[in-house]
Structure formats: C-alpha cells, structure tokens
Design goal:
By secondary structure, the chain is mostly helical. It is built from four helices and no strands.
Length: 110
C-alpha cells in the first residue's frame, strides 16, 4: 500500500543502502563508546526515520543477536576473564520466556 510507505522506502535503493551503512556505523561506534547495546541507540534513530514501531523493534532485536555474539567472543578471546558464563546463563534463562511473552503481547498492540 503506497499510503503506508515512509519517506525512507520512497528513496532509491542506493540511498537506502548508504543510509543503512551510515546508521550501522553510527550505532556501532555509539554503542562501543557508551557501553550500551546497539538497540538502545538504533531504536530512536529508526523512530525518527518514521519506521513502523513494530518493524523498528523487531529489527533492533535482530541486530542485537550478532552484536551480542561478537561482543562475547571478543571478550572471551581478547579480554581477561571478563565473561561470567554462570551469570549470563542465569539471565538468559529468565530472559527467554519473557521475550516470548513480550512478543506475543506486542503483536496484539495496534
């Protein structure tokens, strides 16, 4: 539906790719400098670009997975015992069910 297109989707494919690369660079740099996760920085950017909120949230979560894996591997191989796998496992065990419930609730929100 043309009425649901944002200004972003109306741009040329080349512009969209370039903007996504620029956003990725800015989010990566910002999260590295501040110690926050990528979605903390990415979500407000996507909202300012008028992305649909559900698409923006889903995209941010999808971006978080490779960032988390790369960060953890970096800390394992280049850090000095910086990864507490017991703590991480406990948090993941509590997080996984609530993510499923949150996704279910989010689908019901208009």
């Amino acid at each position: 539906d043309d009425n649901k297109q944002t200004w972003f989707t109306k741009r040329s494919p080349c512009f969209r790719v370039a903007l996504r690369l620029l956003i990725g660079f800015a989010v990566g740099l910002g999260s590295a400098l501040t110690g926050t996760s990528g979605p903390v920085i990415l979500l407000p950017i996507l909202i300012c670009l008028r992305w649909d909120i559900k698409l923006a949230l889903g995209s941010c979560q999808a971006v978080q997975v490779p960032i988390a894996v790369a960060s953890t591997l970096g800390n394992v191989f280049f850090g000095k015992d910086d990864v507490d796998f017991v703590l991480g496992s406990c948090i993941a065990a509590g997080l996984a069910p609530t993510v499923i419930v949150g996704a279910h609730i989010a689908k019901k929100i208009p």
